[in-house]
Amino acid sequence: MGHDLKTLEELVELRGEGGDNAIAGRERFLIAEEFPILVDECDNSTHWIKRHAKRGRRYKQFICALAQNDTAENYGLQGDKDTLYSCFVLVRLGQFGRDYARTKLKDPQLEQWLKAGGKRRFMVDDCPCELDLSNWGATAIAQPENSGGGEKELRSTQDLNEYEQFILTWGQEHPGELLKARIVQQRCNMLKKDDPENIRIFFQSLADRGLGEVEGNGDRLGWRWSK
Fold first, then answer.
1. Domains, in order of start, for the chain
2. Per-residue pLDDT tens for 139-186?
3. Burial class (CB in 10 A: 0-12, 13-18, 19+), 161
4. Which backbone phi and psi does 29 adopt, to 5 degrees?
5. Structural element, H or E, at residue 92
6. Could you give the CA distance from residue 33 to residue 18 in angstroms, rounded to a whole number?
7. What percent of the residues of the chain are helix, what percent strand, and what percent coil, each to the nearest 5?
8. Distance set, CA 4 to CA 75, 83, 172, 205 (Å)
């Protein structure tokens, strides 16, 4: 971190003397894992994050600081929340995003939307976001005689969360049978105590991606596998 600070000061001087052309090709993106540990163990951590947050962008020195929550103390910014909330975009993943939707935004529907999307969905500041993972890690390409159907199915199943995968597997093992939320609760320990409405959200999510189809409405909604 001390070296990064020296580099930043060098870039400030170079740009002051020669303009943007003088620092061309010196762009960097720095990732600081487990920032609370760095705060405890590195004397430069607070100065590092403040200097890069307030001046680094102008000199193409971008940073990503990772922690388990977004308290200012975790980033060495005690008493300086303004720096955290004005100079950074806060990305909340997984359970942290769902907790934020429920406790801070008071939006249970958003919480369920995030849950249904698995790792594809998260929060960026107060905005819900979803990544297109249809091509993520794809290693197989459908042969021409398959007319693209196999490839489409491959892409659709790559980003399923563990709950959706359980439902899909059940459906493929019981083709044509209508799956209800209570059956999922009986067969899947992970969802045994979950709200049936959450399970129906998984049903709809699968159907929206062309994996099976839903039947019925409200608490009568069910899902079945169909190609």
1. 2-88 (no CATH), 94-130 (no CATH), 147-224 (1.10.10)
2. 433 344 444 555 544 445 666 778 888 999 999 999 999 999 999 999
3. middle
4. -125, 115
5. strand 91-92
6. 34
7. 55, 10, 35
8. 17, 19, 54, 45
